[in-house]
Amino acid sequence: MSSSGTEGPDNTLPSEAELAEMSRDELVKLGGKLDGVELVDYPEPWPVKGTRAEKRAERIVALWFTIAGLAGLAFVVGLIWWPWQYKAPGESGTFLYSLYTPVLGVTLGLTILGLGIGVLLYTKKFIPHELAVQERHDGNGEGSAEIDRKTIVAHLEDAGARSTIGRRSLVKRSMGFAGGALGLGLIGLPVASFIKDPWKDSDNENSLWHTGWLPKHPGEVVYMRRNTGKPGEISLVRVEDLDGGAMETVYPFRESERGDEEALAAAFLRSDNPVMLIRLRPEDAAKVVKRKGQEDFNFGEYYAYTKVCSHVGCPTSLYEQRTNRILCPCHQSQFDALHYAKPIFGPATRALAQLPITVNDEGYLVARGDFIEPVGPAFWERKS
């Protein structure tokens, strides 16, 4: 607001001393007049204080805020304590596990809904619905004068007083409860992912540096297994299974997991497990450019690359045989399978991690070890 060139009804502006002695109502009227605002109608929402209808409206508003608060607390409890570990179909606890995401969605949604309805009802029932007409001016680009600062503060105080929020302790407490519960949930949502230290035991398969292809003990054989759609079925990959130019997604398998339905199913669910196994055509295999230090990671015409895109972690699930390009459908990054899967188009800036592979005495394709670099997008401690 600016009062430059604007005068009061008697063509003079009050001094600072006179401003200090003016009541809030007088400052409100003065501020409106200085800004060319005419209040056509400014009715009290509840002209008679303390009526049953007023109390009922207040309780309804408080009820919605209370519902929001309780739902917010339920969200936090569900986020932290609801059974979230994977349970295979038929196992004990499968039903509770299946409800984890719906519980979070319903409770968080109810929290936001309750807050929204409570605010809307309070605005409708207790905020004065004024009708005002104002003449607009730009103030000549000057800052607000002291008189404008005084009157705008008076307007804000008056709006707060007319909304009657100051004397509605039930609404204030329930609104604070709902807002606090929602805030706790919003804080808990990102913090929950850090409850488990990602750097604890960083040499195991559950750290950011390793994947499910890491052998759990020296000499352990990690086979390549295809997904047949049946979690308990074990279908291993032989050299002769793929034709030249073919691609198949494979997952790690250990003999220690045979007969363990939960472990077999979990291998398909882990996000850094999928590997794109590609058998190049002989004429294409002769053109391959290998990455320094990874010259022996392939087995003949077979090359294995992570399916986790180095951009933001989407699945690079498409392989174009004619051009030997690996494609990420999320942001259209493309990687050259003949040039150690380096990016040649799109936002990705790093090559896909390559899994070292070989064939064992039984003729099955196996991993020679884990990836030698983290898969997927960058993180703070990553050097590249």
TrEMBL record:
Q: Where in the cell is it found?
A: Cell membrane
An MF annotation (GO) of this entry: monooxygenase activity
- What membrane topology is given? Multi-pass membrane protein
Q: Which domain of life is it from?
A: Bacteria
Record's Gene Ontology CC terms? plasma membrane
The primary location reported for this protein is membrane
What InterPro entries does UniProt report for this protein, alphabetically? Answer: QcrA_N, Rieske_2Fe-2S, Rieske_2Fe-2S_sf, Rieske_Fe-S_prot
Q: Which Pfam families match?
A: QcrA_N, Rieske
All copies of the Rieske domain together span 272-366
Print the keywords alphabetically.
2Fe-2S, Cell membrane, Disulfide bond, Electron transport, Iron, Iron-sulfur, Membrane, Metal-binding, Oxidoreductase, Respiratory chain, Transmembrane, Transmembrane helix, Transport
Residue ranges spanning the membrane: these are 61-82, 102-122, 175-195
SUPFAM superfamilies noted in UniProt:
ISP domain
Q: What does this protein do?
A: Iron-sulfur subunit of the cytochrome bc1 complex, an essential component of the respiratory electron transport chain required for ATP synthesis. The bc1 complex catalyzes the oxidation of menaquinol and the reduction of cytochrome c in the respiratory chain. The bc1 complex operates through a Q-cycle mechanism that couples electron transfer to generation of the proton gradient that drives ATP synthesis.
The record's comment on protein family reads: Belongs to the Rieske iron-sulfur protein family.
Protein name as it appears in the record: Cytochrome bc1 complex Rieske iron-sulfur subunit
Source organism per UniProt: Amycolatopsis rhizosphaerae
Q: Upper lineage ranks?
A: Bacteria, Bacillati, Actinomycetota, Actinomycetes, Pseudonocardiales
